[in-house]
TrEMBL record:
Residues 121-224 form the Metalloprotease TldD/E central domain. The lineage of its organism: Bacteria, Pseudomonadati, Pseudomonadota, Alphaproteobacteria, Sphingomonadales. Belongs to the peptidase U62 family. Residues 231-447 form the Metalloprotease TldD/E C-terminal domain. SUPFAM superfamilies: Putative modulator of DNA gyrase, PmbA/TldD (SSF111283). One of its GO terms (cellular component) is cytosol. GO terms for molecular function: metallopeptidase activity. It comes from Sphingomonas lycopersici. Pfam families: PmbA_TldD_1st, PmbA_TldD_2nd, PmbA_TldD_3rd. This is TldD/PmbA family protein.
């Protein structure tokens, strides 16, 4: 695979071709990926996969008109044809007064921060198979597990580079290692499934296969013989696996495009209290070996740790250059770019700070409530904040997590839910978005 410097040179080359072909401005992104995956089921090898790709995306501007094209054919002849097609398309496109490259004076200058995103270690297919098998074996060894959907292990390396016609060029490489298991407990119509997985940038930071396998098995067995929830208003406690989804609804509501289109339930919330006092939500692109760390954004702007919510108050929108211009503001370094189309908006390593109480204390005064471990469906209205999703989990009775329950719905409005949210002190950085266990009082639960 190409180095990050070679990838940067590829992106710079096609930008230069676009300018020579008549573009007033251009930017390009180059992305290469190589990955290996092995899966086993019931102790036998089920699949071995290897994929490699190199793709390039080009965006050109002719005045206020723009066009985007992408290709995986990186020959010189194909590049010339791609550039000609892009410029011709831009000349025929409608004008967009807000589109354009990022402000030149804001571009990242100098060396990007060192984020330790690449591990030189490699795993052979035989080693991946051994890890996958050990993960599944540990899950199947849990008493009560009766079947398996498989164990898996993967290793990948990616290179990303961005170049613009007004002075930015940069690239970086990342690696990723992962393992997972999904198993079934019980028999017949009473079967229950659950899973566990872990990902890391560095091989030595990956959890042990036995740890992930046992967790998958334990979760599946714990769900056996679920009962029903009664309906009513009650506290809902969200496991970190599902609680992280609330931050996705927040970032969607504060993204520049949503604010510019006036399609957000938080449209007028900037500078106001949207969470309870003490709540802090941060985005940290500089987290060493973070799963979503990056040295620059999708437009070549520098990135830095940012508090989106401080002491419960919403501090910022998430802005790319286009939405910033439309709103009369400055971009915030949250542009994200794929090989196809214009930049969008995205966070990096997003997390909600830990609270001050253990999970046991968080639920100790709940006489009747529910601990949610799985969400089903997508019943969220980003315009109004109305929230209604199917769920499964465990009953909370007299301050204790007791029996499993399934086929119920939790509902509310995200504005009210955010204000009523209380975090526990068990924050762990395991995923791209991380939250501690969360309690939300006063939600509506509808039993099946």
């Amino acid at each position: 695979m190409l180095t990050s410097d070679q990838a940067r040179d590829r992106a710079q080359d096609i930008v230069a071709r676009a300018v020579r072909a008549g573009a007033d401005a251009a930017d390009a992104i180059f992305a290469a990926d190589a990955s290996s995956e092995v899966s086993v089921r019931l102790g036998k090898l089920e699949d071995v996969g290897r994929s490699e790709s190199e793709d390039l995306g080009l965006r050109v501007f002719v005045g206020h008109r723009s066009a985007s094209v992408s290709t995986s054919d990186l020959s010189s002849q194909a590049m010339d044809a791609l550039v000609e097609r892009a410029v011709a398309m831009a000349r025929e496109a409608p004008e967009d007064l807000w589109a354009g490259l990022a402000p030149e004076e804001r571009l990242l200058r100098g060396a990007p921060p060192a984020l330790d995103l690449e591990d030189r270690a490699e795993l052979s297919p035989a080693e991946l198979r051994e890890i996958a098998a050990a993960t599944e074996d540990a899950a199947r060894a849990v008493p009560g597990v009766t079947n398996s959907e498989g164990g898996g292990a993967s290793a990948s390396r990616s290179v990303i580079a961005l170049a613009t016609s007004h002075g930015f060029a940069g690239g970086y490489a990342t690696t990723g290692f992962g393992l997972s298991a999904s198993v079934i407990a019980g028999e017949g119509g009473g079967m229950q499934r659950d899973y566990a997985f872990h990902s890391a940038r560095h091989r030595h930071r990956l959890n042990a296969p036995e740890t992930i396998g046992r967790e998958a098995g334990r979760r599946a067995v714990a769900r056996l013989d679920p009962g029903r929830m009664e309906s009513g208003a009650m506290p809902v406690v969200l496991d970190p696996r599902v609680g992280a989804g609330l931050l996705g609804h927040l970032t969607g509501a504060i993204s520049g495009p949503s604010i510019a289109r006036k399609t957000s339930f938080l449209l007028d919330a900037l500078g106001t209290r949207v969470f309870a006092a003490g709540i802090r939500i941060c985005d940290d692109p500089h987290r060493p070996h973070g799963l979503r760390s990056r040295p620059f954004d999708g437009e070549g702007l520098p990135v830095s740790p940012t508090a989106l919510v401080e002491d419960g108050v919403l501090e910022t929108w998430l802005l790319d250059s286009a939405s910033a211009r439309q709103l009369g503001l400055e971009p915030t370094g949250h542009a994200a770019r794929g090989v196809g189309g214009a930049p969008g908006v995205s966070t990096s390593n997003l997390y909600l700070d830990a609270g001050h109480v253990p999970v046991e204390t968080l639920i100790a005064d709940i006489v009747s409530g529910v601990y949610v471990t799985e969400m089903i469906g997508h019943g969220v209205n980003g315009v109004t904040g109305d929230y209604s999703r199917g769920a499964a989990g465990f009953r909370i009775e007299n301050g204790e997590i007791t029996r499993p329950v399934a086929e119920f719905t939790i509902a509310g409005n995200l504005k009210d839910m955010f204000l009523a949210l209380t975090p526990a002190n068990d924050l762990e950085f395991r995923y791209g978005t991380n939250v501690p266990t969360l309690r939300i009082d006063g939600m509506t639960v509808a039993g099946g």
